[in-house]
Amino acid sequence: xxxxxxxxxxxxxxxxxVVLTVAGEIDLATEEDFAEALDCALAAEAAxxxxxxxxxxxLGSAALHVLLEANAKARRQSRAFRVAHGGSFAxxxxxxxxxxxxxxxxxxxxxxxxWVPAPSDGRHDAAVRDIR
Length: 132
Prior knowledge:
32% of the residues lie in helices and 40% in strands. It is α/β, with parallel strands linked by helices. The N and C termini lie far apart (28 Å).
């Protein structure tokens, strides 16, 4: 967990899902903090990593690069990497940058968590199952 005045984050996880909730501004001044938060979330073993940006008030280009790197790491680990924006400022930036074509982007954390990958031989693949 971090609270530096500009960026707050915390990680929650259970067996299937890791949720990184971020609040505040993600720019050059907080890029390293954001990268640390994503690394912390990636260190927890779960089939799905959800980055919750609902409470983000600014999302700079540095943050986009960090998101793309984390997405690549998750894919190398055969994990789902999802982003929820809740219609926040982040939604506009992600769309304008075209990352909604690259990342799994959802309107809400609930929508992002409505499906999780199904285990296959101890690993997780692209098959999905309803967790409700």
